[in-house]
């Protein structure tokens, strides 16, 4: 079976999407995603839930006028646990905790993947008591 030209995309061909699309898709997964500027005009999503460790998703290009219009692309989109706890202290995680989104993945599939891993990460057994 050969790939159709529509399914083959180079990183340069993959369109940027507004933050609003992933925010809405995460709402459909029952999770709230927020976008903020994290330095130098870089946009980052923050996925938080009561009693859970925060996940970050990014990077993107921040829109000062409308944060939900910030732009992201699947050509370079990663997610995983935030490296800092609620008190700003560094937290170490296994290298495999950060995941890359496959370029060209549809937004709904990205939301499902991130939601599943966020829930899995936050319900895994840990060595330390919380």
Description:
- The chain is globular, with a radius of gyration of 16 Å.
- Helix 1 packs across helix 2.
- It starts with 15 loop residues before the first strand and ends in a 7-residue tail after the last helix.
- The chain contains 2 helices and 7 strands.
- By secondary structure, the chain is α+β, with helices and mostly antiparallel strands.
- The strands form 2 sheets. A 5-stranded antiparallel sheet has the order 2-3-4-6-7, with helices on one face.
The biggest beta sheet, please? 5 strands, antiparallel
Beta-strand fraction estimate: 15-25%
Query: What is the number of strand segments?
Result: 7
Q: List low-pLDDT spans.
A: 1-8
Structural class computed from helices and strand pairing: alpha+beta
Helix content: 10-25%
Main β-sheet, spatial strand arrangement: 2-3-4-6-7
Radius of gyration from CA coordinates:
16 Å
What's the shape? globular
Mean pLDDT: 85
Distance between the termini: 51 Å
Give the topology string: H per helix, E per strand.
EHEEEEEEH
Number of helices: 2
């Amino acid at each position: 079976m050969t790939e159709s030209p529509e399914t083959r995309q180079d990183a340069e061909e993959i369109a940027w999407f507004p933050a609003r699309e992933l925010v809405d898709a995460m709402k459909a997964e029952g999770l709230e995603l927020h976008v903020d500027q994290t330095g130098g005009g870089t946009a980052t999503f923050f996925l938080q839930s009561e009693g859970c460790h925060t996940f970050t998703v990014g990077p993107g290009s921040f829109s000062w006028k409308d944060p939900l219009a910030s732009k992201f692309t699947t050509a370079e989109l990663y997610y995983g646990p935030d490296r800092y706890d609620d008190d700003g202290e560094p937290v170490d995680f296994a290298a495999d905790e950060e995941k890359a989104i496959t370029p060209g993945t549809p937004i709904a599939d990205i939301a499902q993947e991130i939601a599943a891993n966020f829930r899995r990460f936050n319900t895994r057994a840990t060595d330390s008591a919380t």
